[in-house]
Amino acid sequence: MKPIIFEIVQGEEDLACHSGLGLIGVLLGKTRLRERLNAVALPLHPQPEISNSDVVFSMIGLLCLGQPDFAAIESFREDNFFRMALGLDPVPSEATLRQRLDDVQGAFDAILKEESAAMIRRHAPKIGACHGTIVPLDMDVSPFDNSGTKKEGVSWTYKKGVEGYAPNFAYLGLEGYWVNVELREGSQHCQKGTPKNLREAIRRSKRITSAPLLVRMDSGNDSIDNIRVCREEGAGWLIKRNLRRESVEEWLETAQKYGSVERPRPGKVVYRGEIGVERAEIEAPLRQVFEVIVRSSDATGQALLLPEVEVATFETSLSLAPAEVIELYHAHGTSEPFHSEIKTDMDLERLPSGKFATNALVLLLGMVAYNCLRLCGQESLREEEPLPPQERAPMRKKVQRRRLRSVMQDLIYMAVRLVRHARRIRLSFGRRNPWYGVWRRIYIRFTQGGESRAGWNSA
Description:
This protein has 459 residues and is α+β, with helices and mostly antiparallel strands. It folds into 3 domains: 14-110 and 355-448, no CATH class; 128-235 and 333-345, Nucleotidyltransferase, domain 5 (2-Layer Sandwich), CATH 3.30.420; 248-317, no CATH class. 35% of the residues lie in helices and 20% in strands. The chain is built from 14 helices and 15 strands. It has helices spanning 21-29, 33-38, 52-64, 80-86, 94-104, 109-123, 194-206, 224-233, 248-258, 322-330, 336-345, 356-380, 404-412, 436-448; strands at 14-16, 135-141, 144-145, 155-156, 163-165, 168-172, 177-182, 213-217, 236-240, 260-265, 268-277, 286-297, 303-316, 416-421, 424-428. Strands 7-6-2-8-9-13-12-11-10 form a 9-stranded mixed sheet, sandwiched between helices. A 3-stranded antiparallel sheet has the order 1-14-15, with helices on one face. A hairpin with a 5-residue loop joins strand 12 and strand 13 (303-316). It is globular, with a radius of gyration of 25 Å.
């Protein structure tokens, strides 16, 4: 059969290819963002014609579509669904969007962080624990490559070796809800300013869940200041140590004296154990867990000229066995995909403005958008109650978390027709749309969503 030659016409139907913004609009509408943002009087815009909330919601909508460029708003100026889904009146122009965000200068930071945490608390199906009831709070720096630009604050990143920024992120739970972020210059050391951000992340997390927290950080944050913050805020910690100038040979002797021995294969010996260390800066002794690996041959059995010694040590408040502590730290690597989703799925790595303060605000708006998408994805996986087949996600295998790109493809970029009839507005989906039942269930759940469930901190 030959391909059909179609007749091309333009109809009068009001169509949209991003119906998922209806889900985003419901989530934002359940927060106090609109009233709190509109209550802020910016010095250059004391009585703006276009409200602060309309500007912010427009940018969040673009970020949920993976279009963080200011110019992208122009294609939605006459889009009725974009305006109605996000509750805008009207949709701002590119110039208004850029200029208003330039003029905020940090005035919205606390509001965005607080309302984002409240949204997670209200709508998240659960907060995944890493061991028993312990919920992980992963903090890490992930460089943003902005090479080839002259943006304010862009400098050489020590971790990635490119020109860019070095934002510090905090993620809660196995699902990776984004609870705090600070945009920093690329050359800034990862520990500088971290105690303040850590304290804020812990307090924000405690407003989301009452479960015990475990802060996990890599060796760049090996500082007694972070441990002191964790103790003061009542959170556990698991931080990889920076050996600095410590002798590998001395650690091997310590491991042979205090550690248990395991021989997983010929030519490889693993020592695991723990020691207590007194620190002048802190009262109680600190527990240090170690893993020392000695290899006299490689995995193929080829003998090495000299044995290789690999040392990894950790400071922790956990009372678990050393092997369990080490495994929990290795699980800290699960936060790396969260960075990737922000950079690639949301296309946020190359921030849109030349001004540092504006890019910091866009990153915070990205946090709100990220959590909206994450909530949509996790809600689509909910199976706590019997669901009819048409309301179950049409997926071949069970997963714990949905990547943002999959959420955007399956739920956000879904075609819909806007129908006005008898003073009512309807969304008409395609007859054979496999995600219609899931989309409808999520919309109803978010519309009727209440406060936090049993066992959660409702403070």
